[in-house]
Amino acid sequence: MMLLRHVRNTARRSIVVASVLLISGGIAVAISAQQPRSQTAPPERPQPAASEPNRLGQPLLDPGGFVRDDAMLKSTLLPEDRKYGDIDGRHLKQLLMEVDAISLKDRDSGNLFWGRNVGTPGHDATQAWVEGYFKKNGLQGIHRIPFDLAPQWTPKAWELTFTGGGKPLTLVSARPATRTSSTPPEGLEWELAWAGTGTEADFVGRDVKGKAVLMQDIPLPGDIRHSADLDGIVARAFVHGAAAVGLMFGISDNFAIWQDTAGRPGFNVGFEDGRRLRDLIGQGQTVKVKLKMTSEMRPGLKTASVVGILPGTTGEDITIFAHMDGFFRASLDNASGLAVMMGLVEHFAKVPPAQRRRTIRFVGSAGHHGGPGARWFHDNKDTALATTALAINLEHVAAVRSKYWGYKLRMTTAVAPMRWWVWGSRDLMNTALNAFSRFNVGVTADMDPNASGEMGTVSRDVPSIQVITSPEIKHTEQDTPEWVPSSGLEEIARAYARIIDDVNTMDRARLQPQSAPRTQAAR
Fold first, then answer.
1. Neighbours of 511 (CB within 10 A)
2. pLDDT at residue 371, rounded to an integer
3. DSSP code, position 443
4. What confidence tens digit (pLDDT) does each residue in 367-385 have?
């Protein structure tokens, strides 16, 4: 550490021009150089120390270090769109906080793999919350579509301990891998080996047999696309004889995540904790990890989707999905989608019934993390989607845009751009893009080749639209309300309300994908 200071000494009529603090081996040594002051030398101007904080502080951050919600950039409502002014982002954020409270209650109940996962009290409470809002806003035909679940992985107790050079290490981000089976009561212990990013080149000349192998898992940009999955590094480590696999998630910060390691023993650590383990190994120290796990595959669980109807004047419908399940607080994934769905419920419930061309069917979907979700509609599309003119999916709909600065992910005052999907006619696509532009919903220049998430299974059954973003925080314990801006919720909700109104001026045939032109058969 080096600190440069300028100090005036009027008593000795001399000046300290440099004072350097050297810290080496825990010993601090001050070294200074002095010179006589010239009678004609101009007076020196005091300079602030390099470590002195800017007195202006951080005006755009809240006390927790997150960007302030009211500091986010916000679009201006055009005069012709004033009827969407009742969709207010601050109200939508309050709805999101209600869903967030369900997850926190599930955590505080003692559930280890907490949140709003299917088959748990957290998901049951979310179903009740969705149904309550449907009733409050006068929706009709409210009902649940029940599902029997496959056995669900349920941790009952776990313990991860690390040592470096025989000394205990505290790693706040350490989590066991999901689907890990129970260990013997005394646990399992391994020496830890580092294997870079887990490519075949990383294993050349490295003996990992019987060891736990730690590898870096790079978000691309998050859990939905990450190097461990795309490059198959977990399976590769086991092929090379590893007894367990550790994944160091990220290239910044210290996100806590529960990734799986193919059902075999494993663990996850954040980037900062993972670097600590890696560096100890690099120093030649023996690093060990011990895992104790008690878990079960719990059979006989049930879940449900919740459906509510806002009647229109024709026999056609627009179906809107928002999945209810989520890992941990799951503010982006998918309290954000549920909040926007309820904003649309409230907005269109105010429209006189005679002015609603199409029925709007709202679906609080059981979800896809562990349940059937929208797949039920695909499996029963001949009846469940027989009258559907358009399907809309509300999933991960608003996140703070971030940028990397060294090993830190910095928040900005902008909403992150979205990946997007439209299946249908060019008129439908132009309608969607026009609405996104009007309400400042940024999207990637290229459209996704396929729909993802809850929309994936039904995306080509009927005309469909979604925007979605999946940043680094997705599926981590850092997916908190601070990452979901009210401005983003407001803008996407207003955009979808406009899309629904514009689509209702078009006949169903006009929304359908155009048939490929026929070519003359070769002779």
1. 19
2. 74
3. B
4. 988 778 899 999 999 999 9
Work out whether strand 317-323 and strand 388-394 pair parallel, antiparallel, or are unpaired: parallel
Determine the angle formed by the axes of helices 89-108 and 336-349, rounding to 10 degrees: 130
**Distance from the first to the final alpha carbon of the chain:** 81
**DSSP per-residue codes, 294-356:** EEEEE-S-EEEEEEEEE--SSS-EEEEEEE---BTT-IIIIIHHHHHHHHHHHHHHTS-GGG-
Q: Is pLDDT above 50 for 130?
A: yes
Question: What span, in angstroms and rounded, lies between the C-alpha atoms of 89 and 95?
Answer: 10
- 3-state DSSP assignment of residue 369: coil
Q: What is the pLDDT of residues 329-348, one digit of tens each?
A: 999 999 999 999 999 999 99
Distances (CA, A) of 286 to 162, 194, 243, 279, 478: 11, 11, 17, 11, 31
Specify the pTM. Answer: 0.87
Evaluate if residue 361 carries a pLDDT over 70: yes
Alpha carbons 373 and 326: distance in angstroms, whole number:
12
The residue behind tokens 């806590």 is 256
| Phi, psi of 487, deg, nearest 5 | -60, -40
User: What type of residue sits at position 59?
Assistant: P
What single letter denotes the amino acid at residue 128? A
